[in-house]
Amino acid sequence: MLKWLKRVIYTVLVVFFLAVGVFFAIRNPQLISLDLVFWQGPELSVALYIILSFTVGACVALLVSSVAYLRSERQIRVLTRKYEKSRDEVDALRKASIAKELSVGKE
User: Rounded to two decimals, what is the model's pTM?
Assistant: First the structure.
């Protein structure tokens, strides 16, 4: 039911940020040359370099968060296996206890 609302909000946010990006690019047409220690970039607009840096930053953040996500998923699988093993052991002990009580009661 709220899926359509989520989709509308995402669409509005994407359109908003695209509009802000276009406005920023129009307002900053100056060309600059990016000069790093071992590499000199071509002359591009300030807005393009800023948008590229945000994009690279988002990709790095996605990569780092995916590593943390995969690590936590692996930990969840390990803990789930431990839980299931412990649950099976408790069930076996309960059955053994009930069987022992039944055998003692027959005597």
Answer: 0.56
